[in-house]
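ARCHIVE CARD
CATEGORY: sequence design from structure
SOURCE FIELD: tokenized fold
FIELD CONTENT:
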């Protein structure tokens, strides 16, 4: 058997893998990326943030047009769902071509399509369509990502998942009249708002009492009443079965308290979470694997200093941009001879829930501060008084900034409403660099832009 040598092997070719792969290739190292799809880029492009936001942005445009029409302004837009999905597919295709061109233009990198499994800490077998290949690796980055979790509910095979909905050439090609969403996390809630904006009657079933479980209750309490009131949200739900109706639709059986009930829809989206994809053989070679994923610290090293785990597979912050940063940390530490010289800052990773409207947060929020006994000073700014929000007739929500009570150093913040996804990055940068309320108050941000609300929130303390 021929064994190929690689300075670096990445298991996966998404955000946790390719930034490090390119960095080491530029340093003259030989790099092999192994991925089941055989293309560069992971779940974000295939079935996650990029395709879902392609749908979201068109839904938001349609929603905005209706908002202006209600105020007597001219113009009409109709929904062509097939064209929306074709637009989504075209964005994915364009980005895959872009990634392929980057890969082709970079020496020292090879892509292999297949499934990787550990034989020893330095030897990996890859099962390909042409048989098994063996690679001996000086360094390994595990970046195998995560996959949709489907609970063992009878009839779950009759449900769609985010994979089915957002992958290239998706299963759903016509706009359903009725959609049932099982799960009130960010994937389920985002999708519910997209389809409601396009005209689908949506029912969302949430097992717990709070939507977006695990996120700051104060932020969720501001967001929830701003969601489309046509979305029928039921909490405290335990789904017991899904079946096909005689008409070809779907029927969901559930319990709520002591009551059993059913609800019918045209499609059901199962959106109850994702779980890490652990390469075969990882535990057998001594890598610690927990329920959340491969155990790593801020240096991204596993129990073997030459093996790193980046992105969703470690379960620390399962977001694409977090994976990219982690990949670069691994690259720097590999170039440093596996002696940590760079560390991932997991606390200051901005998170946006791309609902309509959106919400975003970063750093320490009130619930976390209370749990850790950290006293806060809170700066506030309501979009009701914001000029850009008034221009766009989107005056709901606002900005809250959380400062250390003694030093007024920014610890975190959240935004609900207009431009939340853009503003949270600016807040996160300020928090990561230790800026204070005085620093934010002194910065003359642009008018009329929603970002000026950050300085105004800081000045609300003085």
């Amino acid at each position: 058997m021929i064994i190929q040598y690689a300075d670096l092997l990445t298991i996966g070719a998404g955000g946790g893998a390719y930034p490090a792969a390119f960095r080491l290739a530029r340093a003259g190292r030989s790099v092999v990326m192994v991925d089941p799809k055989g293309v560069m880029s992971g779940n974000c492009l295939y079935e996650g943030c990029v395709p879902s936001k392609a749908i979201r942005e068109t839904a938001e445009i349609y929603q905005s047009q209706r908002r202006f029409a209600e105020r007597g302004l001219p113009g009409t837009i109709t929904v062509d769902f097939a064209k929306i999905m074709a637009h989504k597919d075209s964005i994915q295709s364009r980005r895959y071509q872009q990634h392929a061109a980057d890969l082709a233009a970079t020496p020292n990198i090879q892509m292999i399509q297949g499934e990787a499994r550990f034989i020893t800490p330095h030897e990996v077998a890859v099962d390909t369509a042409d048989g098994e290949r063996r690679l001996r690796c000086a360094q390994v980055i595990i970046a195998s990502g995560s996959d949709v979790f489907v609970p063992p509910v009878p009839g779950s095979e009759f449900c769609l998942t985010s994979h089915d909905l957002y992958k290239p050439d998706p299963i759903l090609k016509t706009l359903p009249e009725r959609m049932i969403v099982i799960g009130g996390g960010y994937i389920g809630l985002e999708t519910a708002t997209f389809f409601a904006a396009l005209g689908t009657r949506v029912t969302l079933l949430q097992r717990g009492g709070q939507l977006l479980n695990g996120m700051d209750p104060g932020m969720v309490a501001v967001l929830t009443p701003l969601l489309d009131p046509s979305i029928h949200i039921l909490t405290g739900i335990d789904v017991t079965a899904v079946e096909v109706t005689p008409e070809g639709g779907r029927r969901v059986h559930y319990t709520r308290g002591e009551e059993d009930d059913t609800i019918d829809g045209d499609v059901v989206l199962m959106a109850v979470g994702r779980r890490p994809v652990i390469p075969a053989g990882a535990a057998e070679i001594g890598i610690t694997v927990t329920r959340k994923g491969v155990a790593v610290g801020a240096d991204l090293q596993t129990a073997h200093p030459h093996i790193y785990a980046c992105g969703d597979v470690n379960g620390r912050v399962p977001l694409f941009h977090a994976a990219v940063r982690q990949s670069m940390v691994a690259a720097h530490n590999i170039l440093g001879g596996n002696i940590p010289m760079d560390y991932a800052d997991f606390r200051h990773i901005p998170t946006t829930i791309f609902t309509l409207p959106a919400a975003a947060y970063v750093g320490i929020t009130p619930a976390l501060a209370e749990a850790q006994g950290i006293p806060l000073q809170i700066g506030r700014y309501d979009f009701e008084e914001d000029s850009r929000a008034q221009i766009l007739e989107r005056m709901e929500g606002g900005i809250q900034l959380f400062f250390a009570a003694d030093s007024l150093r920014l610890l975190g913040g959240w935004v609900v409403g207009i431009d939340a996804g853009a503003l949270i990055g600016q807040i996160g940068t300020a928090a990561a660099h230790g800026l204070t309320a005085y620093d934010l108050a002194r910065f003359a941000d642009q008018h009329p832009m929603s970002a000026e609300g950050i300085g105004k929130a800081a000045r609300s303390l003085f």
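CARD ANNOTATION: The radius of gyration is 24 Å. DSSP finds 13 helices and 21 strands in the chain.
SHELF: design records, drawer C
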